Structure to design on (261 residues):
């Protein structure tokens, strides 16, 4: 049976300001990218989400980002290597501590927002994030954009990498994501999103904004948790994949199982 992982960005509420429906999403996804406090999230809220993830046996990843609360981590930044390596270690370490208190563990790292898009093709910042991960825990899996140069760069450095596709984001013909500043960058129709993800799993292809088909080799599907219809989209995608005979399974479980075989 073909399997795929569903992931979502969670733990992004800040004090009295809610962001998304984390509890509902944790009942749908198999992996949760948990904010680490730099682009969003506060310790008490992050801990609560981690406890719920542990209760539901959802795999947990560190959703690290630029130090940019005001911009929600979506503004491009140019930190020094020392800063970015340190920030990477700091964020993962903080989440590891909270996860331990919640009775779970951090199994992977997924950069957020502008940092994610930058390291996809910026070899210097990618090297800094890779160095930070390796310095703290080289067994952590890096989640990255399918087809991006960072995938091979991280693998060459010795990290295990899982590639992901975005359910609700439009793609350019070169495999990059359409900028959020452009119209149509985010797709909102749950049924259309579900059908394109089933096709991605079955055929490993997605239609870009210019109408061309592009190859996507992904073992995880991201559904953003901060959009108004996030839960409806996630449920529709899950139900369509299950109806199509696709098994939903955390990639971290699959990788650990392969390592134990």
């Amino acid at each position: 049976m073909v399997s795929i992982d569903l992931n979502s960005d969670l733990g992004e509420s800040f004090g009295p300001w809610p962001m998304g429906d984390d509890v509902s999403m944790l009942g749908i996804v198999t992996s949760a990218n948990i904010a680490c406090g730099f682009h969003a999230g506060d310790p008490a809220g992050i801990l609560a989400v981690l406890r719920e993830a542990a209760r539901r046996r959802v795999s947990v990843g560190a959703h690290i980002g630029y130090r940019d609360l005001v911009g929600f981590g979506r503004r491009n930044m140019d930190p020094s290597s020392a800063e970015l390596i340190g920030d990477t270690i700091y964020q993962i370490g903080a989440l590891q501590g909270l996860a331990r208190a919640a009775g779970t563990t951090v199994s992977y790292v997924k950069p957020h927002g502008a940092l994610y898009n930058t390291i996809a093709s910026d070899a210097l910042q990618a090297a800094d994030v890779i160095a930070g991960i390796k310095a703290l825990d080289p067994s952590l899996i890096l989640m990255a954009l399918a087809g991006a140069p960072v995938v091979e760069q991280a693998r060459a450095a010795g990290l295990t990498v899982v590639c992901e596709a975005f359910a609700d984001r439009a793609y350019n013909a070169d495999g990059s994501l359409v900028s959020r500043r452009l119209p149509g960058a985010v797709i909102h129709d749950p049924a259309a999103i579900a059908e394109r993800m089933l096709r991605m799993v079955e055929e490993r292809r997605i239609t870009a904004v210019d109408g061309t088909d592009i190859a996507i080799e992904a073992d995880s599907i991201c559904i953003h948790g901060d959009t108004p219809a996030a839960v409806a989209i996630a449920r529709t995608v899950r139900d369509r994949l299950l109806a199509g005979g696709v098994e939903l399974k955390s990639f971290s479980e699959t990788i650990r199982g392969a390592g134990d075989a």
